[in-house]
Design brief:
Elements lengths: L5 E5 L6 H17 L8 E5 L5 H10 L5 E4 L16 H6 L4 E4 L2 H6 L4 H13 L3 E6 L3 H5 L3 H12 L5 H5 L2 E4 L13 H19 L1 H6 L1 E5 L7 H5 L6 E4 L6 H11 L2
Parallel strand pairs: 1-2, 1-8, 2-3, 3-4, 4-5, 5-6, 6-7, 7-8
The structure holds phosphoenolpyruvate.
Phosphoenolpyruvate binds next to strand 8.
């Protein structure tokens, strides 16, 4: 079964709601110029929460092809949760994707696999596709324990999800040592772990779910390395940080991910 590649740009805590308008307009113009086909490779931006309304109005009003998501979601129903954002609120803003368990959330906000699984479940219940992030830090990689570490994160982060929910989710392998460092994993490194993730999904939920789930690589992806990463049989796309803030570069990455 062919899996549609996904190129998701994580803006992190960059770009306010005013600047978001021009960044999305420039990206969309570049995609139109390049005759990008969203069915061949989906291009998604993940702005901060405060930008989402501006992005929604722009995308809907001008019928832009760019799709958008969020960077985090509450695991809880609306109610007494100061500072949190419910999945239903995001769905009403047209959000299609949300990252859960990004390494910056795991590190700075002490999110564990159980929290990640609860957030993924809340997103799915609201009709939003979670991009479930996993990945080892440098010490684990140097100990050569990266595959077992990531597989354990996959087990914990998918806990409680049904086979259909897993099939409809995205799993992003992001080695922490490669995020924002310019240190990209080799294509073989990415394939080794992305393949292990897919095999784990097969072991948990069977071949069909393993064939359907999309597995991304993230960590210093650029137009100069995306093509080789995308050639790997178990790499279905990329989660892009720094490079997605340059609309021309992000459009180039999207173009190279299409084939
Ligand atoms: C990320 O934030 O998920 C990421 C992969 O960042 P960068 O591309 O800058 O390494």
């Amino acid at each position: 079964m062919a899996r549609t590649p996904l190129i998701a740009g994580n803006w992190k805590m960059n770009v306010d709601h005013v600047a978001a308008v021009s960044l999305v307009q420039q990206l969309d113009a570049a995609l139109v110029r390049d005759e990008h086909d969203q069915e061949a490779a989906e291009v998604v931006v993940l702005p901060p929460f405060t930008d989402l309304r501006s992005v929604q109005v722009l995308v809907d009003g001008d019928d832009l092809m760019v799709r958008y998501g969020a960077q985090d979601v509450s695991a809880h129903e609306p109610g007494a949760r100061t500072g949190e954002i419910a999945a239903g609120f995001l769905a009403r803003l047209g959000v299609r994707y949300v990252t859960v368990g990004h390494s910056e959330r795991r590190t700075h906000h002490h999110e564990d696999d159980a929290t990640v699984a609860a957030k993924a479940s809340a997103a799915l219940a609201a009709g939003i596709t979670p991009i479930i992030c996993v990945g080892e830090d440098l010490a684990v990689r140097q100990d050569r324990r990266h595959v077992e570490h990531v597989v354990a994160q996959v087990d914990g982060s998918l806990d409680g999800l049904s086979a259909d929910q897993v099939a409809g989710s995205v799993i992003a392998y992001e080695p922490v040592w490669a995020i924002g460092t310019g240190e990209v994993a080799t294509a073989a490194d990415a394939q080794e772990v992305c393949s292990a993730i897919r095999q784990r999904v097969v072991a948990l939920h069977g071949d069909d779910v393993g064939e359907r789930v999309r597995v991304l690589y993230g960590g210093s992806v650029k137009s100069s390395n995306v093509a080789e990463l995308m050639e790997q049989v178990d790499v279905d796309g990329a989660l892009v940080g720094g490079a997605c803030l340059d609309p021309e570069e992000f459009a180039r990455i999207a173009g190279l991910a299409r084939s």
